[in-house]
Amino acid sequence: MRRTSCLYLLLLLTLACGTPKRKVLQATNAPIIRSDTVKINTESVTLALPSIGEAAVTEAQAVAIPPVMSTENRVQLLMRTGINKNADWTEAIHYDVRKPNFVIIHHTAQHSLSQTVRTFQLEHTKVSAHYVVGKDGRVVQMLNDYLRSWHAGRSKWGNITDMNSVSLGIELDNNGREPFPEAQVQSLMTLLDTLKTKYQIPFTNFIGHADIAPTRKDDPSMFFPWKRLAERGFGVWYDESNLVPAPSNFNHVDALRIIGYDVTNLRAAIIAFKRKFIVTDVSEVLTEYDRRVLYNLYRRYF
Predict the structure, then answer these.
(1) For this structure, is 240 an active site residue?
(2) Host domain of residue 201
(3) What digits encode the pLDDT tens for the residues 103-148?
């Protein structure tokens, strides 16, 4: 009897302390979390996932900074645009790019070289030049010589009505009311010598903005030393020692036109001519002296 009671008591204790089979099966379906299975690098998480504030700043900066296409990419885009999509395409290997045949000299009518550089980099200005020469002689090139800059505007010289396509534009840092410093002039002539030699530009094709746009422009102003440039082979000048009277049948309108001036507005053409060669008198009337100068230039070069 005592042995039976002990066995019964042992059975009760076993049932009370054991885990039912049903509960064991349920426990195996629950996820097992082991802290050493996945180790989290908090530094990498911080770099990969910026805070909300940092993300907002990055997005704001992306909106504020517009995409800028490089000059090379612009040229490539223009070249692709020029391909006829209706034709088969295979590229020839013999060709040239634009060859400049004129140099147009301007003054900036601004207050500093940096201001002019900035002007040529603003989208709304729609103006540019190949070179800007500072008062101290510093030269800044802003476009490749082979590219077409927007410096001449509405202009004409001889029969050419698109001067931008055939010329290089050089801007001199000058407000138009002051002499050009010696360092600037010397630097300009060095640049002109390089361009003339490289592209075989005729000496008669070094002209000013006022020459090609007499109704709109007066640059590079009466202070510009055209005589000095002509003596170096950049532009034309008259022989002051041989100013013979023009013959009675000399047609000054035809002479101006043959030189290159657009005589559609004869008054503007005369003023542009006198601003460059007479300097001291820029009236619209040709005096006897003016006619001698014009005749000398016409006979000497054209």
Answers:
(1) no
(2) 102-231
(3) 999 999 999 999 999 999 999 999 999 999 999 999 999 999 999 9
